Structure formats: structure tokens, C-alpha cells
Amino acid sequence: MITLKGENIYLRALEPEDLEFIHTIENDESVWEISNTITPYSKFLIKQYLKQSHKDIFEVKQLRLVISSYDDVALGMIDLFDFDFKNSRAGVGILVKEPNDRSKGLGSEALKLLIDYSFTHLGLHQLYCHVSEENDISIKLFTKQGFQKIGLKKDWILINGSFKNEFIFQLINN
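RE: above sequence
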């Protein structure tokens, strides 16, 4: 049995009812830096995305899950992206929506569940992520789950007119 249930949260598939939640996140300029977004998304486009979200990760090369509390409150999202079946790897992205819900272990629990799922059920060999050099919370989160810093991309991201460095982290399933 596939379980994406943790002690405090669980990961679930996207539902049509998530439209407002996703729309709010995708249009929150304060998180565009971590999502590499520069334009807002319309509800129409998000509806189209939700209609396609049932497709298999092997077809669309992405899996987006909602981080949910046990009283069914959507707390954030966690993604596998750039799924590469041939090389057995995928990128990971995570966002806990509300700042006051961050640094409480929810992201760590969600990431652990996704790592276990990726290695056990998808058979991936490795996961990777890109984190701004200044994003101490994400650096701590990924390091705590065993990701190792393997490189620095200098002047990689342009944020508010200034170039920022970005680390690449990697977790290999041994």
C-alpha cells in the first residue's frame, strides 16, 4: 500500500477545489523568487492545469501534491519536476504557504514522505533541488533530509535587479 501519510500531515493529489489555493500561491509575488516565476497565472490557466493533473508522472514529467493537515486544510505544495525516467532522477520543489506555518517541521515531514515515495515507488536513483544562497530555511530543510550541497551557480538568478547565487543540492538513493 502506498502511503503518503505522516504524523502531522499527508500528501494528496490535486483536486478541482484547490483552484483558489493554487491561484493564491502562483500569484503571490513574495514566492516568485523560489518558483522562478515572473508573471501571474489566470484562474483559467490553473483550471486547465488541474484538468490535466490526473496524468501520470511518466507522461507529464511532473507530480504536484498538496501538503494537507489531517483536518483537510491545504498548507502548501510539494513537487517532483523534470522527471527523467532514463536517468532515474527528478527535481524537488516545496512551499508551505503561510509564513507562520513554516519552521514547524511540516515541510520536513512532507519532504521525507516525498523522498520515500520517490525512492520506493518510483524507483528513482536521485533527487535534486536548486536553492538561493540566501534561503537559509530551505538550505536547512534539504540538508536535514540528507541532501548534500554539490555546487554553486554564481549570479544565477536575477531578483529585484540583483544577481544572486544558487546552490544545487542532491540526494542519491544508495
